[in-house]
């Protein structure tokens, strides 16, 4: 059942809050009428939604940002403090009912990206962002169904946890079934679990063994089969979908179903469903949710399109945090998303120290200054490490940050905050970075209208003399050079910052409306699973390097063309191989085109030296 809502700005803390004026509003959403409000109340009136066969009414709210309280007919019935976790509230409804939901801005450190200037204020309006509905159920009913895939060598199963609600003592059987969806091969499984409980809520746990499983893979490795898990009790049932996969990380790299999968990623700021398709178009197989939780709809899109998700805890910027609350929130975040096969990694604290590299060049003295500032950088990563220790479902990278604080996942911006893009090589060698990179890149204007904005004004002015075209050319050069450097060095995980601007000009390789900047095509080329790269795209000697991020090797034909002078050779490349093919010496001002063909796949790469 959907509701008709009105809303008004309120002072936080009213019991219940009262708005001076109420205006009709669409829910779910982020009403721009309240961009400056500290708290917004949402009100709906409705009649009893149950029919004679239904004993229970349940309010379901998803994406309640950031803290919330719920009243029914003036009585406080629920509080909530994690927008990524669904809020399910049993409603003691009468014939006529008034529902009131107060949403408040973050009261702690866990607003994440929405509590910063990386997103416009219109994106962080307190509200019900993703879904709002009333469900009705008979008695007894299945209130919640949480599942998690388990793939361990030859053994595959699905862990199931079902929450049952009953008004009367209950002794019954819960039927649990797992069936492939779509064109997935294999049969289904059905199990029964006993439910013996007094009136109230009871949790039933069970594990369904899967015979002849079809495993889920990232899109550049395999297919994305999924399974429907159903829990049925008497006249009620609930169904969710999952995919069968395992994810781990060790000295071999990121492993999906025990097989290495080099991850080429993009960071999302306020990610949307459409961004998943855009990531695939960029040849990315991973998205990093930068200090915010992706909505269930975005996770569904990642499941469908075979894109891995690196999920940050909504915690960013310098400053201490409550480690106990962080651990509880991370546990809840993983729990709420663990059914999704796309969930591949988590991190705890992003950007824990201020930027110390801004304004430094590439000279020897600048590198000395960089080393001095990195040496002086101070951050205690132990609390984040303890928080991450509680995660067992997927790999965890506790600290995301720059050189100098021994990050678990590095952020590096050569060519933007300091030096030149080619300094990525020095950064990796000097500080042992480059294995897991959470963010790299540069900013650029999106169109002529952006030139009047103050986006990174001083930083951009130091890099670019001209307008939009020069700005985008600089960004494309930085993004391509750093991405190729990290791929040549065989990075396990890398992610460019950012896929799409959130507000006018920005770090995105796409404008806010999804229009490509010059860097998008450059990233597409750099992210081709099999690609041939010029190690040093400057005049003089440079190695031609073949990178091959595929699970099988083969015979590749590599071609290089310098101003029309074309040569080629054949190279035997191993799975996930890196191999120098030849050395060329393009003169200044020359156009270099590289190409590789293997197993009916062709990729090209172009440089102006």
Automatic annotation (TrEMBL):
Pfam family of the protein (one): Glyco_hydro_2
Q: List UniProt keywords, sorted A-Z.
A: Glycosidase, Hydrolase
> Coiled coil: which residue ranges?
none
Note down the stretches annotated as region Disordered. Answer: 1-27
**One example GO MF annotation:** hydrolase activity, hydrolyzing O-glycosyl compounds
Q: Which GO terms describe its biological process?
A: carbohydrate metabolic process
Q: Has keyword Hydrolase?
A: yes
Protein's UniProt keywords contain Hydrolase = yes
Q: InterPro entries in the record, alphabetically? A: Beta-gal/glucu_dom_sf (IPR036156), Galactose-bd-like_sf (IPR008979), GH (IPR017853), GH2_Domain-Containing (IPR051913), Ig-like_fold (IPR013783), Ig-like_GH2 (IPR006102)
Q: Which residues form the Glycoside hydrolase family 2 immunoglobulin-like beta-sandwich domain?
A: 141-242
Q: What is this protein called?
A: Glycoside hydrolase family 2 sugar binding
Q: Name its species.
A: Halomicrobium mukohataei (strain ATCC 700874 / DSM 12286 / JCM 9738 / NCIMB 13541) (Haloarcula mukohataei)
